[in-house]
Amino acid sequence: MIRLTINGQIHQVDVDADTPLLWVLREWIGLTGTKYGCGAGQCGCCTVHIDGVAIRSCLVPVGSVSAAAITTIEGLSPDASHPVQKAWLQHEVPQCGYCQSGQIMAAAALLAAKPRPNDADIRAAMTNICRCGTYQRIRDAIHSAAELGKA
Amino acid sequence: MTALGFDRRRFLGTATAIAGAYCLGWSIPARAAAAAEGGRELGIWVVIEPDDTAVIRIARSEMGQGTLTGLAQLVAEELEADWAKLRAEYISPDENLARQHAWGDMSTGGSRGLRGSVDYVRQGGAAARSMLVQAAAARWSVPAAECQAENSRVLHGRSGRSLGYGTLAADAAALPVPESVTLKSPAQWKLIGKAVARLDTPPKLEGSLVYASDVRLPGMLNAAIAQCPVFGGKLVSFDAAALSAMPGVRHVVAVDDNSVAVVADTWWQARTALDRLPIVWDEGANATVSSADIDAWLREGLTAAQAALGQRQGDVAAGLAGAATRIEAVYSTPFLSHATMEPMNATALFTGNALEVWVASQNGDAALAAAAEAAGLDPSQVKVHKHHLGGGFGRRGQQDYVRQAVLIARQIPGRPVKLLWSREEDTRHDFYRPATQCRLQGGLDANGDLVALHARLSGPSILASLAPARLAGGVDKVAFQGWLAEEFGYRSIPNLLIDHAVRNTHVPVGFWRGVNTNQNTIFMECFIDELADAAGRDKLEFRRSLLARSPKHLAVLEAVAERAGWGTPAPPGVFRGLAQNCCFGSYVAAVAEVSVADDGKLTIHRIVAGTDPGHAVNPDQIAAQVEGSFVYGLSALLYSENTVKDGRIVEGNFDTYQVMRLADMPKVETVLVPSGGFWGGVGEPTIAVAAPAVLNAIAAATGRRVRRLPLKDQDLRLG
Ligand code: FES
Ligand code: FES
Question: Which fold has domain B31-206?
């Protein structure tokens, strides 16, 4: 039995400790906002926060995070009021939306670490794939979110 | 109907993870109660709820391209609906079937989502409005002509009375649907042309939108699939006993004659077990084919005597023979998989005499037909729940994954089974953009005018593989996309020949965003640049002379050239390239600005992309599609290719099938120049000019032409 703290709630999961956190979230806990895109740490669809840091959950054995605070897209804010979510809405970032949970989590972690990122910071931090090609709006929305976060 | 995007139900607080509980508290949004809406349905496209909310029915699929919102705008425009009191709902394929395809074609491809239904959905909105107006007039005992609809209310100007749509809906629904209605003129439009916010965004920001791969049903099992790695190969046997100790595994089943699935409590268990399943394949005759063989097969077609005719004008052989200057070039582009962000998946529940499927498909009708056939049921016994697609790009126009899910579920009656492909299966079992080569020969007269052009395509035919019935006398018209008579702008070339040596391979090919306009526009626009160079003429001026009889093409080209500052100095070290075409009913052009560093590193700084789609329904969504189409097109230019070794696709995940990321994103400026009078496509057209504009800018920067894609691993340096 593995004990997990996800979005502030405690969960007990009877699962093999090697199981990737992504699949525990999606299949055992039922938090399907975190997506599978590659299972290989390549795409970032599965990005969550582990102790505030953006991590690709498909490569995280669930047994390694029992002491950590895990935040998923469902727990980023109670009502889509996180500055990144607001900026995403304002810029109409999502197209199909499938990558956006991961993009939003990556952007939120970037802003937490660096409240006023420049374009180079954004390029370095935002390596998630979006096949719909929303990168321009992601970049613009992160700058807007930085402004919103200041206020 | 499935409510779209408004199910804010969240898993927070409801998930009680306990031992073995792998399928928790979630159900598909309830279908709108037929009884409740039965009395409030005004024609087939609109249902009005008591609180005035207009429910707009959507038959096409939303895959990110904004069609859902655009269609709602078209209906709401004629309905005179208040945009703030509106909801969109999918019509399900089974409802469409039950009502004799009343909602028309559900297929969503070829950038036809709006333009293919623009007339009948607007008529649907107008019919509903007319019924509401008549209902109000009857209540007030005044002539309908004295009443006016506005913002989800009907007003009677003379008496100052007004009633909301919700109040009138039941009366209106009892009236006959008018057979003919008059549509508004463009000058009267209030919503068409407005950058309204997408209807489907909020749940995409909270992780609450339920994609097909997120479906969770009571008792659901999960399947992972392995398909014969060599196309055309067969499944011989597998050793299910080897998995007997694997946790969660319930079934190991042959899906069809070329694939096997492990079915387990969770997908992770299924996938882990599948990796350990001993499988024997009969790889068949294609198991020795490599990319080099395919290259050679295509190269042979470049000079073959036989070829399907696309266009002929004048006498190209004589024109070339008499030309003062002749040049020739061969270009080649690779196979490309779609790599939608959400891998292929579908969920099916088979109960003997009924089937339910949960799918993301670009063609709901076809998904239903494929599911029924796989289940051995009559189509009327099948229910299809449509989900928004985590990307389509043409891939989800094929229903192979739906058929597989049903073939698995059929073997486990009474249990819903979700089939999810791994990324590797997704990359290796696609319907690829056809690898294509093109040999171009051009002749210039002594004035530097183009007098003869021959473009010989060689490559697989998509129609031959997916829709042989659409081949016209053996000719695949789709192969000539962007060069069809109604599209091709360079009409003034006196001697022109465009033909296609069909060279099919064992690699399945299909429709990939922009389809054959991608490579055709690369071939033509790069070669036009080569000809301009040979003639010593400016690239824009050379095109102007060739587009003299194509004013719409020329207008878009001029618009982007002007915005980009063509003819004025670029920033130091930055070079510009141009491209234009007409495809999917829209006129498009682009200017790219790039630099190539001494170490060969390419930077794409800026793209100015123009489109004339006739009428522009939602300018902001058009800009989003332009931006996205460049990312998809430039991914292919810069990084992506599928190669073949031992009969199979080599690339499996994004480490080998590479795509563009944010760091490569240029600034994309959209120049929207809608000239009115027609409805052109939006999702695809601009992708055609992405790669050639950049390639032409690279050639300007380096003095060297790259004619083989992708650019990765090639040295772009000077000399
Ligand atoms: S699914 Fe984890 S990085 Fe792609
Ligand atoms: S929005 Fe579709 S993959 Fe990013």
Answer: Aldehyde Oxidoreductase; domain 4 (3.30.365)
| Cα(B582) to centroid(ligand 1), Å | 37
Asked if A134 and B627 come within 8 Å (Cβ–Cβ), the reply is yes
Contact call for residues B154 and B167 (beta carbons, < 8 A): no
Rounded Cα gap, residues B67 and A36, in angstroms: 25
pLDDT in tens, B534-580: 999 999 999 999 999 999 999 999 999 999 999 999 999 999 999 99
Partners of B61 on chain A (C-beta within 8 Å) are none
Residues whose CB falls within 8 Å of the CB of residue A78, separated by 6 or more in sequence, listed in order = none
Q: How far apart are the first and last CA of chain A?
A: 43
The residue of chain B with its CA nearest to that of A78 is: B206
- Please work out whether the CB of residue A102 comes within 6 Å of at least one atom of ligand 1: no
Paired residues of B279 in beta bridges:
B238
For chain B, residues classed under CATH 3.30.365.10 are: 31-206, 212-284+344-420, 291-336+432-713
B343/A31 touch (CB, cutoff 8 Å), yes or no = no
A99 lines ligand 2 (CB under 6 A): yes
Contact across the interface for A85 and B214, Cβ inside 8 Å: no
Selected from 3.30.428.10, 3.30.365.10, 3.20.19.10, 3.40.50.720, the CATH number assigned to the domain covering B212-284+344-420 reads 3.30.365.10
User: Which ipTM score applies to this complex?
Assistant: 0.98
- The minimum-distance atom of ligand 2 relative to the CA of B390 is 2
Chain A interface disruption, residue of B8, B211, B265, B268, most A CBs within 10 A: B268
Ligand 1 neighbourhood includes A42 CB (under 6 angstroms) = yes
Q: For B86-175, where are the E strands, in sequence order?
A: 86-90, 147-150, 153-156, 161-164
Which two tokens mark B237? 């046997």
Output the CA B675–ligand 2 centroid distance in Å: 30
Angle between helices B364-375 and B400-409 (to 10 degrees): 30
Radius of gyration of chain A (CA): 15
* Chain A contact set for B665 (CB, 8 A): 135-136, 139
Residues B94-150: pLDDT tens digits? 999 999 999 999 999 888 888 889 999 999 999 999 999 999 999 999 999 999 999
Residues of B in contact with A99 (CB under 8 A): 341
Residue B39: pLDDT band (50, 70, 90) is: confident
pTM, to two decimals? 0.95
Give the number of other CB atoms < 10 A from CB of residue B277.
Answer: 19
Is A36 near ligand 1, meaning CB less than 6 Å away?
yes
Please say whether the dihedral angle defined by the alpha carbons of residues B80, B83, B85 and B88, taken in this order, is positive or negative. positive
* pLDDT tens per residue, range B482-494: 999 999 999 999 9
The domains of chain A are located at 2-76, 83-150
Closest-CA residue of A relative to B195 is A92
Q: Do B266 and A23 touch (CB under 8 A)?
A: yes
How confident is residue B476, by pLDDT bands cut at 50, 70 and 90? very high
Q: Which residue matches tokens 């058929």? A: B403
| CATH number of this structure's domain A2-76 | 3.10.20.30
Which CATH architecture best describes the domain B291-336+432-713? Answer: 2-Layer Sandwich (3.30)
CATH class, range A83-150? mainly alpha
